[in-house]
Amino acid sequence: MTAQGDHITSRSDRVIISVDAMGGDAGPAAVVAGISTSATKNPEIGFILHGPSDELTRLVARRKNLRGRVEIRHAEDVVTMEDKPSHVMRHGKGSSMWSALDAVRAGEAEAAVSCGNTGALMALSMMRLRKLPGVNRPAIAVLWPSRNPQGFNVMLDVGADIRADADDLLRFALMGASYARNGLDLPRPRIGLLNVGTEEHKGRPELKEAHALITAAAEQSKFDFVGFVEGGDIPGDICDVIVTDGFTGNVAIKTGEGTASLIGDLLRAAFRYTILSRLASVMAVTSLRRLKKRIDPRRVNGGVFLGLNGTVVKSHGSADATGVSAAVKLAFQLAQQGFTEKLKARVASGAALTQGDATSASAEANEN
Amino acid sequence: MTAQGDHITSRSDRVIISVDAMGGDAGPAAVVAGISTSATKNPEIGFILHGPSDELTRLVARRKNLRGRVEIRHAEDVVTMEDKPSHVMRHGKGSSMWSALDAVRAGEAEAAVSCGNTGALMALSMMRLRKLPGVNRPAIAVLWPSRNPQGFNVMLDVGADIRADADDLLRFALMGASYARNGLDLPRPRIGLLNVGTEEHKGRPELKEAHALITAAAEQSKFDFVGFVEGGDIPGDICDVIVTDGFTGNVAIKTGEGTASLIGDLLRAAFRYTILSRLASVMAVTSLRRLKKRIDPRRVNGGVFLGLNGTVVKSHGSADATGVSAAVKLAFQLAQQGFTEKLKARVASGAALTQGDATSASAEANEN
Question: Which residues in chain B are contacts of A259 at CB distance < 8 A?
C-alpha cells in the first residue's frame, strides 16, 4: 500500500473517495464507468481505486476524463457475494474491499464506496474503522421514496444487525437525524419509531423504552419526535427519518422494492395489452420516464453505514454506472460536509444525555 | 339473542354468514350495500346482521334482493376503533361485534365478518370462540398480490400478536398451508419462512429452530418448504405462503400498501403533467383499470383469523361495499369447504408431529 502524499491526495482542493472496484455483479467496468460519470459532474472529486491493477489500469486508461484523477491500488483478491463475513474478517486482507477501507482508515480518503457483499463490508468496516464512541451497533441507512417535499425519507437500520435494544434505537435516532441534516439538508428532521400501531401502549417492550429515550433526547438534539409510526409511513410524509431494528427494516425495504417492481411490470404488461394502450404508452413516454426517475432506486443508490470512524457507502450489488455514480455522489456530499466528525459529536452529545449528563454535550454538537 | 331454528338458518341449502354491521369507517350503509352485492352474486348465502335493529331494518328494507335472506340481531353498542381490546373484553357484551361472534359460537352461522377494530375483534374471537387445540397463538392471514399464477400469496401473521416462537411459526405454516388449499385451491402449497437472507445461518434463533420444525413437518403435512425467503418474495413467485411473526408481517404489508399507494398517486400525477400524457391516459384507461383491479386491495379484502373454533374474516376498517362483499365471499368460500374442521384436523396432525407422534395424525387430516 502506498503512502500518502502522492500527486493526487496532495491536491488540497480535491475530496478523495476510496472505491472498491470489485465484488459487484456488473464487474469493474461498471464501477469505472460510474466514477467517470462522477468525475465529469464533480471536478472536485479524486479517486483511489482498489482491485487488480492491470485490469483497472486498462479500464481507466480508456476514460480521458479520469486522467490524473485516479490512483490505482493493487489488490489481488475479491470478496464474493457468497463469502461469509467471518471468513472475510480472517482472510480478507488481500482483498480490494479491505484495501478500500484502509485508505479511509489511514486518512488518505474521506469516504469509501463498495458494491460488494453487505455483510462482509459491514464486518470489515467495524474491524478496520472501529465504532464511534457511544455506538454499540452501527446501522445501515437508506433513502426511500416518500411523499415528503424532499422526495425521500431516511430509514435505519435496514440490516447491519438483526437486533436493536432501546439504547441502540436512540442512537439510530441521533445518527439518522444527523444524516438527514447532512444528506437531505433538513435542519430539524422529524423522527418516527416504527411499530405496529401509533398508540403508546402498543409494541414490544424495547420500543416503549426507546420511545421514552428518544422523547427525552429530542429537544437537546434538535429534532422533532413524532412518536410511533407504521409501515405505511415509510413512504409517507409524517416524518423524515424512520428508526427500526435491522430485521424489520430489511424486510420492510425489500417488501417495498418487490411491490414497486411488481407494479412496474404489471404496468408495462397493461400497456402492451391493446393497440390503443400501446399507442398511449408511446404518447406518455416522458410522463412514465418522469415517474420511473422519481422512484428509480439507482438514483438513491447507497446505503450509508452510520456509527463508524469514517463514511462507508454501500452501493447496490447490481449497480450499473448510474448506480455507482449516485453512490459516489453521496459519499462526496457527506465527505464535503465533514459528516463523520459531526456524527461523532452528535452521538457523544446524545450519549451524554442518556447518562443524565446533558451539560457535557458540546455546543458544537448542536449545530450538526 | 334469539335461538336457532328460525326461518333462515333452517334452510339447509343456505350458508349463513354472521355480519357485524357496525364499527367500520363507512358505517352500516356500506355493510348492507356489500351484503346486497354478495346476495345477488351468491344465492346460497344467508345473513345474520348485528347492530341497532331500527337502523338496520331501514337499510335492509331498501334492498329488495335481501328480502327473506337477512335476520337482524339487535345490538345496542358499537366497538370503536379507539377502544382497547382489554376494555372490549370486559364491557363489550352488548356490542354488535360480540353478537356477531356469538352466532358462530352457537353454531347458527358458519363464519363471521366484521370491519371493526382488529385488536378488539381478535381478543373477542379468542374469548368467545376459543383457540383450536394445539394452537398457542392464532394468526391473521392476508392475501397479497404476487407474481404467482394464482395472483396472490398468503401471508401470516400480519398482526394478531407481536411475538411468535418457533412452535408458533410451525403452526402458522400448517394453518397457512391449509388456508392456501381451501382459499386459493392450491393442492400442494409452497411455504417460505421470512428472514433477512436465504442462507440457513442467517436470522434470529427462533427462525433457525422453526426452519428445522417446518422442514420436518413438510412431508407429512403435504406442503413444500422452500426455506427462508426475503421481503422481496412476498409479492414474488417462489412460494405461496409466507410465514412470519405478527410484528414483521404487519410492518411488511403496511410498507407494501404504502408503496403501492405512493406509486399510484405518482402515476396519476405523471399522467396529468402534459396535454399529451392526459390524452394518453384517456386512451389507456382500460389498461390502467385492469392494473388497478389486479392490485386493488378491496378485491382481496379480508384478513382471516386462523387457529380458532370458527372462521372470522376481518374486513378492512375503511371497506366500502366492494370490500365488504369481497370479505363475505371469502367467508362463504371457507364456510362451504368446512374450513374450520379441516384446519382443526391439520393442526392436530402437525402438533402430533412435533411431539414425535407422527402416526397419530389421522389420514383424514392429510386431505385438508
Answer: 145, 234-235, 255-256, 259-260
Q: Choose the weakest-confidence range: B34-48, B119-133, B273-287.
A: B273-287
Nearest chain B CA: its distance from A292 CA (Å): 9
Type of residue found at A333: Q
Lowest mean pLDDT among A286-295, A317-326, B61-70, B179-188: A286-295
The answer on pLDDT for B99 being more than 80 is yes
On the question of pLDDT at B340 being above 80, the answer is yes
Contact A255 B231 (CB under 8 A): yes
Residue B197 DSSP class: -
Q: Which residues of B touch A80 (CB under 8 A)?
A: none
Per the DSSP assignment, residues forming a β-bridge with A15 are A45
> Which chain B residues are closer than 8 Å to A257 by Cβ?
231-232
Contact B256 A259 (CB under 8 A): yes
Residues A231, B273: C-beta atoms closer than 8 Å: no
Q: How is residue B38 written as a grid cell?
A: 354478495
Find out whether B96 and B77 touch, Cβ atoms under 8 Å.
yes
pLDDT of residue B56 exceeding 90: yes
Pairing of strands B111-114, B15-20: parallel
- Tell which residue, B34, B8, B38, has the closest CA to residue B332: B38
Work out the minimum CA distance from A249 to partner chain B, whole angstroms: 9
Share of chain A above pLDDT 90, in %: 63
pLDDT score of A91 more than 70: yes
pLDDT mean across residues, chain A? 87
Taken in order of first residue, the domains within chain B and their CATH numbers are 1-130+308-337 (3.40.718.10), 132-300+338-368 (3.40.718.10)
Q: Which residue of A has its CA nearest to B258?
A: A232
Residue-by-residue DSSP string for A222-276: T-EEEEEE-GGGTTSSS-SEEE--HHHHHHHHHHHHHHHHHHHHHHHHHHTSSHH
Note the ipTM here.
Answer: 0.85
CA distance, residue A327 to nearest chain B CA (Å): 22
Count of CB pairs separated by less than 8 Å, A with B: 188
| pLDDT given for residue B80 in this prediction | 93
